[in-house]
User: Which sequence fits this backbone?
């Protein structure tokens, strides 16, 4: 028996936090204080908006020990649906974005649970399917949003949405039976089953939640860029995975998955990307640095002892 | 307990950070003033764009008195951001060298970034990031008209000037918006329609009837126009576009596309690269054609002169291409316009719209002549003194949108004769 | 709820043994013991009874006729199950004691859709104390506990849940004498409160000592049924088991 499992867990949660502080301080010094200007904080919030909300949804899926490769594509399809709906009337945009997201999320859950494919394979295949739908609908082009909708893209709306979703996500994750059951499934699905937890239903519900949130992000992408294209959300998946792992969420899920990882990880990613732009780094340098930071944080905080094959 | 400690540490970091931010900017600016004065001979108001303060202006004036070849009129320091890569293919480095020469000589800074025009998200993120980083002027090549209203509102809110390169605006509502925008300085584009038409009719002269095209997503105004020109030529000459592949980003995509074209159409005569953002695409396609053993039947045509143009002409794969005298000339001229605006001596009070004419190259000798002049990244479109004296309105009050357009037309016509 | 009737035909995987025409009834306030060799199929009895595995034919019901088809329905009828594989099935080894004890009782603890951390904590502390679990605090991870304490946590979970019927499969395997004794005491206490226990065990003394009735399985079929009596010895049972 390992003497101090709890202390190991504590270290794992501290490292990401220290990482966040280190990143902020580093860029603050190197850019001579440009990080904490009002304008830059706005840019950081814009950058973290998408990552944070998607990671909130992803945390439920990850707590169960599952992964989702189709997040960006779900966002893109929802963006297209929102654009199409907005042509009829702009008020339709939000439901037209969220509903496809929920449906696609449900489909992910169906493939994983009912067809009994591991989540990695399942979402890999659904991602291809969704991409196919996307390309067929767009037919090589892009769809634009009506110009009045661009006014909706206000900072206030974004901050309120971010806060609301983060808070609600927090309570659902930490303090509801559902959130706790997600983590129980991740810790040991068989034991969860023997405690009366409907494992299939919990897994499907998490995918639906993630899908719905990605759908909402599709709407926000539409009003931010005014465009729905096949490259919408293309880097969402990598950013969310990095944010989740940088924040310290274990790949295998379980009870060690803390909600604060979502926040720490998302902001670390946002400050990292933003800081590199402030420094004037080229795209290729940025990717190199992102990779190195990622590797260091993971190596320090990854829980090797409890590595189980991804379910 | 521990988490409370960590929260306290983070808050302390932020507070210290804010204080450091406010305090150190003046120091760093003066430090940079001296270094720039040392390295740049024609530095004038060569001070980094940071927080302004009167002591800095005094220091700047002192420096300008020392340096040679300075602007006769005081111009403001400025920072530009260009949403194009500065490396990867010769045309990128040629463009960035020229822009950097002009900008540095007139007291400014410029940063480049690749991958911006690939998607709407990337464009908006780039604009937001650069505004936050303190840019005074931004140049982008928008992937579609629909991002323009957002870009304009971001820039207008921040008081940042901006311009478009390589694209024209098609949508009427967007055009109207831009005409009334105070911060949009204009665009520079090529005569895409005739280029598309010319290349397709050149192909017809070589006996081509069935063509496959590689292009960008629909909605990209540049490739839309080129394709429109190509389609008209098809109508006029009885040719047919049998297949298309869009939005390819890397050479391996090009190889796969070429292979599927070749397999699906045994009577294919040509592959026409209408437009692409990737590098190494043409070489990959030529190789795919050769690997399939069909280099005698399937020809390659393109718009924008590729790096490997000479070797492709030599091997006989490439038969015709149209392009600018130099790919980087278009962004150079619009950046010059933007720079003048940011310096405080605008070339024009209404948005400009430059048109660069393309010309075609159909044989090896012309290709070699072009490459020797423009195929390396050290060629300057104009030497540095000319750049500062002629193209900075502070030194040349006769600089107008019309004179810029004339310079552009002359440049293309004289490009191969020098 | 008075009695519980079972009538089970069960055929399982080729590696496991089959159960043929196994029928039995469990009564209130009774400890029914199942004995047999390891591959006699008795462990599957527990799984089928709790609804984890499905029987090919026949069904498991509670007194009022509700068929138990999955663990949720079983729990609705206040049935509890602690399996043979403690670490893989009845506990979250890689989890805190707190979550282990609370996980069966989330519905009970939920008020206005939320579970208060404080209430959950006191709930777990209370039941851990009832069973006298030796631990640092409820946040300690279960993997650090000894075998006996782990089992106590599992039992605490079901006591906290408020089960009336307990299905226990090898409850004292790998546990030291002291804890074993306290578990036996607990079982008798529960019986006296009117709870029913279905005890499956490979340890003959345990079966003989604790059960009111004993059913012996051999090769998936019932080979004998006995009541508590002085003359019931291990050798007699072994005759029926082999």
Assistant:
């Amino acid at each position: 028996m390992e003497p101090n499992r709890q202390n190991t867990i504590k270290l794992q949660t501290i490292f990401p936090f220290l990482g966040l502080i280190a990143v902020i301080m580093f860029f603050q010094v190197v850019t001579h204080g440009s990080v904490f200007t009002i304008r830059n904080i706005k840019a950081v919030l814009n950058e973290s908006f998408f990552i944070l909300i998607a990671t909130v949804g992803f945390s439920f899926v990850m707590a169960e020990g599952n992964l989702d490769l189709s997040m960006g594509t779900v966002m893109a399809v929802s963006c297209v649906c929102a654009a199409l709906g907005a042509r009829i009337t702009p008020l339709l945009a939000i439901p037209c974005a969220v509903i496809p997201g929920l449906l696609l999320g449900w489909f992910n859950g169906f493939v994983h649970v009912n067809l009994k494919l591991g989540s990695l394979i399942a979402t890999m295949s659904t991602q291809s399917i969704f991409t196919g739908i996307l390309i067929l609908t767009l037919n090589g082009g892009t769809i634009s949003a009506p110009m009045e909708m661009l006014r909706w893209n206000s900072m206030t709306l974004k901050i309120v949405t971010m806060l609301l979703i983060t808070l609600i996500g927090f309570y659902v994750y930490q303090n509801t039976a559902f959130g706790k059951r997600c983590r129980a499934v991740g810790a040991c699905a068989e034991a969860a089953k023997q405690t009366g937890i409907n494992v299939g239903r919990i897994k499907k519900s998490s995918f639906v939640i993630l899908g719905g949130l990605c759908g909402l992000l599709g709407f926000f992408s539409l009003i931010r860029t005014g465009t729905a294209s096949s490259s919408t959300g293309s880097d969402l998946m990598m950013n969310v995975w990095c944010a989740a792992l940088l924040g310290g969420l274990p790949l295998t899920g379980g009870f060690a998955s803390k909600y604060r990882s979502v926040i720490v990880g998302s902001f670390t990613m946002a400050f990292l990307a933003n800081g590199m732009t402030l420094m004037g780094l080229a795209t290729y340098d940025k990717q190199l640095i992102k990779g190195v930071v990622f590797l260091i944080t993971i190596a320090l905080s990854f829980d090797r002892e409890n590595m189980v094959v991804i379910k | 307990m521990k988490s409370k400690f960590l929260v306290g540490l983070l808050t302390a970091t932020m507070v210290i950070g804010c204080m450091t931010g406010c305090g150190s900017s003046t120091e760093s600016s003066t430090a940079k003033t001296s270094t720039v004065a040392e390295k740049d001979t024609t530095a004038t108001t060569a001070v980094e764009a940071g927080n302004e303060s009167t002591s800095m202006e005094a220091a700047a004036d002192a420096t300008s008195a020392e340096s040679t070849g300075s602007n006769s009129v005081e111009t403001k320091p400025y920072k530009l951001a260009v949403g194009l890569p500065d490396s990867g293919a010769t045309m990128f480095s040629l463009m960035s060298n020229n822009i950097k020469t002009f900008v540095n000589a007139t007291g400014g800074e410029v940063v480049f970034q690749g991958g911006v025009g690939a998607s709407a998200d990337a464009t908006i993120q780039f604009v937001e990031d650069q505004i936050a980083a303190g840019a005074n002027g931004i140049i982008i090549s928008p992937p579609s008209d629909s991002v323009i209203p957002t870009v304009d509102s971001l820039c207008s809110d921040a008081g940042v000037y901006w311009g478009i390169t390589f694209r024209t605006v098609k949508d009427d509502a967007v055009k109207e918006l831009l005409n009334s925008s105070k911060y949009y300085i204009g665009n520079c584009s090529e005569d895409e329609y005739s280029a598309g038409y010319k290349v397709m009719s050149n192909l017809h002269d070589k006996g081509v009837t069935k063509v496959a095209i590689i292009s960008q997503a629909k909605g990209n105004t540049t490739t839309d126009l080129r394709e429109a020109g190509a389609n008209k030529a098809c109508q006029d000459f009885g040719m047919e576009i049998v297949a298309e592949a869009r939005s390819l980003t890397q050479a391996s995509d090009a190889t796969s596309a070429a292979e599927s074209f070749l397999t699906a159409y045994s009577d294919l005569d040509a592959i026409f690269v209408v437009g692409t953002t990737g590098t190494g695409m043409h070489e990959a396609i030529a190789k795919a054609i050769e690997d399939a053993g069909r280099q005698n039947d399937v020809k390659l045509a393109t718009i924008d002169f590729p790096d490997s143009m000479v070797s492709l002409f030599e091997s006989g794969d490439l038969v015709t291409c149209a392009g600018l005298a130099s790919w980087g000339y278009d962004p150079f001229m619009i950046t010059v316009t933007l720079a003048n605006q940011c310096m405080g001596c605008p070339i024009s009070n209404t948005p400009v719209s430059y048109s660069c004419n393309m010309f075609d190259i159909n044989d090896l000798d012309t290709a070699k002549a072009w490459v020797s002049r423009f195929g390396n990244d050290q060629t300057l479109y104009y030497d540095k003194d000319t750049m500062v004296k002629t193209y900075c309105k502070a030194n040349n009050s006769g600089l107008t949108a019309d004179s810029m357009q004339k310079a552009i037309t002359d440049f293309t016509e004289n490009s191969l004769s020098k | 709820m008075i009695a519980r009737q079972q009538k089970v035909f069960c055929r399982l995987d080729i590696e496991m043994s089959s159960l043929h025409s196994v029928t039995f009834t469990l009564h209130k306030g009774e400890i029914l013991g199942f004995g047999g060799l390891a591959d006699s199929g008795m462990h599957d009895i527990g799984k089928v009874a709790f609804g984890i595995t499905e029987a090919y034919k026949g069904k498991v019901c509670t007194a009022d006729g509700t068929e138990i088809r999955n663990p949720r329905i079983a729990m609705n009828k206040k049935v509890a199950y602690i399996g043979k594989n403690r670490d893989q099935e009845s506990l979250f080894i890689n989890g805190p004691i707190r979550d282990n004890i609370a996980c069966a009782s989330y519905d009970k603890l939920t008020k206005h859709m939320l579970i208060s951390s404080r209430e959950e904590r006191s709930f777990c502390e209370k039941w851990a104390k009832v069973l006298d679990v030796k631990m640092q605090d409820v946040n300690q991870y279960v993997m650090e506990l000894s075998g006996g304490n782990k089992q106590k946590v599992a039992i605490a979970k079901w006591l906290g849940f408020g089960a009336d019927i307990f299905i226990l499969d090898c409850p004292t395997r790998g546990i030291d004498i002291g804890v074993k004794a306290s578990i036996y005491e607990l079982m008798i206490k529960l019986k006296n409160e009117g709870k029913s226990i279905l005890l499956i065990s490979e340890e003959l003394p345990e079966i003989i000592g604790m059960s009111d009735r004993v059913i012996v399985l051999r090769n998936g079929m019932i080979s004998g049924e006995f009541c508590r009596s002085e003359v019931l010895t291990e050798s007699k049972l072994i005759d029926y088991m082999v």
Observations:
- Residues 1-17 of chain C have pLDDT under 50 and may be disordered.
